[in-house]
Amino acid sequence: MERIVESRSPVQTRLPLAARFGAFVAERFPFALAPAFEAFRSVSASDPGRDETAIEALRRPVSEALLRAIDHLPAETLGDTVPGVTVETRMQQAKGARRSRRRSLPRSGSRSFAAWS
User: Which domain holds residue 58?
Assistant: First the structure.
């Protein structure tokens, strides 16, 4: 029987926040990487490093930029997502869910925030 050995690569700890955010999005939502990364870059002109206050200050602008990124989608020209639920209705539901998740996101001191903070 062949033994499989998992290689461990070193953790990259000095990457800018935009790169860490992009890696987080690529892991969780790879299909949304391009618009999410562009939304982040549109509101963060410089790297806040590991400054918790500066990272926290990006929370609302990044969230709002992400919502703007989906506003341009042609919902009215598409069919229902499921019978009786229009794409426009589903997009509004997604925006509402995004807003409520933003309020419950882990703060920068928590372990789950470590992915991109």
Answer: 16-63
Measured CA angle at 26 (ends 103, 19), to 5 deg: 85
**Do both 43 and 77 map to the same domain?**
no
Please check whether residues 55 and 91 belong to one and the same domain. Answer: no
Task: List, for residues 77-93, the tens digit of each pLDDT value.
Answer: 788 888 999 888 888 88
pLDDT over threshold 60, residue 105? no
Neighbours of 35 (CB within 10 A): 17
Record the pTM. Answer: 0.62
Q: How many domains does the chain have?
A: 2
Would you place residue 111 in the very low, low, confident or very high pLDDT band (cuts 50, 70, 90)? very low
111 vs 106: CA distance, rounded Å: 8
Instruction: Assess whether 56 and 79 both reside in one domain.
Output: no
